[in-house]
Write a structure and sequence with these properties.
Porin
Length: about 280
C-alpha cells in the first residue's frame, strides 16, 4: 500500500503545471566521406530533453539534457534562469566568445568556424532591442569542459539585418582569446567575416580568419567558406570549403560538401550525407 501511495504521489507531482512543459527534440546526421581515397562513414546524432517551469514571479527555469547516439553525454547540459532582459546559463555552457562566434560556419561536416571555449556559467543581458551583453566564467575545474579558470565578456548588436560582435576571454594562466565578427542577411544572401585570436602566455598570437557566404535558391542553398590560420607570419592552414544543401522536406536535408587545404594535402575531403531534425 505504501508503494502504491508513493507512486500516486510521484504521478501527482509530475502532473503539476510547474514541471508539465517538457520538450524533446534532436537531430540525426549520417555522412560518407572520402579523403584522398580513404573512405569513412560517420554518424552525429543527439536527443535534447528540455523541461521547464514558470515561477509565480515570472522567472522561467529550464534544463537541457543532451544524449548522443551512443547514449553518452553529448555536452551542453545546463540549467537556465531567465526573465525579461536577462538569461543565466549554468553547467556546460558557451563562453562569451563562443556564444557569438562561428558566423561563417554554414556547413554540416567540413566547414570550420573558429576555435571554441566553453565555460561554467554565461550571463546574457539585453538592455535594448538588438543589443546583447555577455559575461561568463570558468573555475579551476568545471563540469563538461577542460576550460582554464578565467572569465570572458562581450557584446553583440543587430540592426537592419547586420550583426556586429566582439568578445574577449582572459584565463588565470595569462592566456587569452578574442573574437571580432560581422554577419548579414539580405534576402537570399547570407555573409559573414570573423577573426579569432588566441594568445599564449608568452604573447604569441594565432589568428584564425574565416569568410563565408550562402545563397538560397528555392529549396537549395549554395555555401562557401574560406579559412586561414596564421601565427608569427607563418600560415599553417589555408582551406576552401564548398557546400550544396537541398531541403527534401521540413527538417530533412541532403548535402554535399568538399574542402581543400593548400597547406595540408590530407585535408582534401568530400562528404555526402543526410540530416534530419526533429
Amino acid at each position: 500500500m505504501k508503494r502504491l501511495l508513493s507512486t500516486a504521489a510521484i504521478v501527482a507531482a509530475l502532473s503539476t503545471p510547474a514541471v508539465a512543459d517538457v520538450t524533446i527534440g534532436g537531430d540525426f546526421e549520417w555522412s560518407y566521406q572520402d579523403s584522398n581515397g580513404t573512405s569513412t562513414t560517420a554518424v552525429d546524432a543527439d536527443v535534447n530533453i528540455k523541461p521547464s517551469m514558470t515561477l509565480e514571479n515570472g522567472y522561467t527555469v529550464s534544463a537541457d539534457f543532451n544524449i548522443d547516439q551512443d547514449a553518452n553525454d553529448d555536452g551542453g547540459n545546463s540549467l537556465t534562469i531567465a526573465k525579461d532582459m536577462f538569461k543565466l546559463d549554468m553547467g556546460d555552457t558557451d563562453s562569451a566568445t563562443d556564444a557569438i562566434d562561428d558566423v561563417t560556419d554554414f556547413g554540416y561536416v567540413l566547414s570550420n568556424g573558429s576555435p571554441s571555449t566553453d565555460h561554467a556559467a554565461l550571463l546574457t543581458v539585453s538592455p535594448i532591442e538588438g543589443l546583447k551583453l555577455l559575461a561568463s566564467f570558468a573555475g579551476d575545474s568545471n563540469y563538461g569542459t577542460t576550460a582554464t579558470a578565467g572569465h570572458a565578456y562581450g557584446a553583440q548588436f543587430t540592426l537592419g539585418g547586420v550583426t556586429l560582435g566582439g568578445a574577449q576571454l582572459k584565463n588565470d594562466d595569462s592566456t587569452e582569446e578574442r573574437v571580432m565578427n560581422v554577419s548579414a542577411g539580405f534576402g537570399d544572401f547570407t555573409v559573414g567575416y570573423e577573426v579569432h585570436t588566441a594568445t599564449t602566455a608568452a604573447d604569441v598570437d594565432t589568428d584564425t580568419t574565416t569568410i563565408g557566404g550562402g545563397y538560397t535558391l528555392g529549396d537549395t542553398t549554395f555555401l562557401v567558406e574560406a579559412m586561414e590560420a596564421e601565427s608569427q607570419s607563418v600560415v599553417s592552414s589555408d582551406e576552401m570549403t564548398y557546400g550544396i544543401h537541398h531541403t527534401l522536406a521540413p527538417g530533412l536535408v541532403a548535402f554535399v560538401e568538399t574542402t581543400d587545404d593548400e597547406k595540408t594535402a590530407s585535408e582534401e575531403t568530400t562528404a555526402i550525407g543526410l540530416t534530419m531534425k526533429f
